[in-house]
Amino acid sequence: MVAELDSLLSGMFRMGASSLMLKVGSPPLYRVQGSLVPSEEEPFREKDVKFLLEDLASPQERDKLLREGQVDLVVEDSGGRRFGAHIFRHSQGLGGVFHPIPDEVPGLEELGLPACVVSLAHRPSGITLLAGPTGSGKTTTLAALVAEAARAGRHVVCVEDPIEYLHTENGPGLVHQREVGIHVESMAAGAREALLLGADVLLVGDVQDRETVQAVLEAANAGILVFAAVSSARTVSALEKFLGLVPEDQAELARTILSWHLNGVVAQALLRRRFGTGLVLAVEVLLASPSVKDALRRGNLQDLPALMRRGKGLGMCSMEASLEKLLARKVITRDEAWMLTREGEKEGAPL
Length: 351
Description:
The protein has 351 residues and is α/β, with parallel strands linked by helices. 38% of the residues lie in helices and 24% in strands.
């Protein structure tokens, strides 16, 4: 790795930063407690950023960067610490955002997830969608769900792009991790091959196309427990996005199959603590009660927010209720809650 980038990555630990950002015309920026803090380096020139970032990618990753304008990858510094990297093209050339990947997978309780979410890792089969925007901790939660399933003695197949957390200790279970572009051609292909591998549990790192939706539904039909990530801020919008990838003439069938197999939808966000350091998790949970399944099958997704509020006794929780709890405990500020609410409103979330 280029020595300058190695030093910048190591600086994340000195600064207590959650990410490092590189951009032409700007000094490297660290995100510390939600705020951007410039490093002491000079502003980067285009050739500097191009050299630093393109040097990291493999030939296949460079091809994807040229073809799609962005690529996700994992890099290591000289000390063997691993970082997730998102490299992308923008109006001034190349940019990059890096975040550290912890060596150990945290437990679900450690992350602050409610007991009903932990129980989803022990369902015999079905589908759980995990929603949240970039930077919401979806990857960490998915890794914790995989570790929980492996400790229960199950065979887990993960299809990821890229592989971030490494599951080296599987307990009595077994975890196979496969990366798109290296081990499998696509998310959909990896999901379908999980059936051939005899998976009990399937992790799909991102659902972005019709083929992946169909592969997820097929896996659930085959009796596999599926965890799938959807980039959406709220539970209902995640369902809308998932189903919206299906052609209109297949929408009713997709809703029906999903209603048979859905276990729940979890949406999460990370917010700055009011006092001290670190981030705090806000969680929205929609569980597949009979009423929720019926509304989903009929296509009445507009009824789900009310059903979620009425399902409090079952463990359901709206994002609004989660924020109110954090505010009551004085863990976050009203401004922080308002910003998250505004993000949800952009997706038409019922807050």
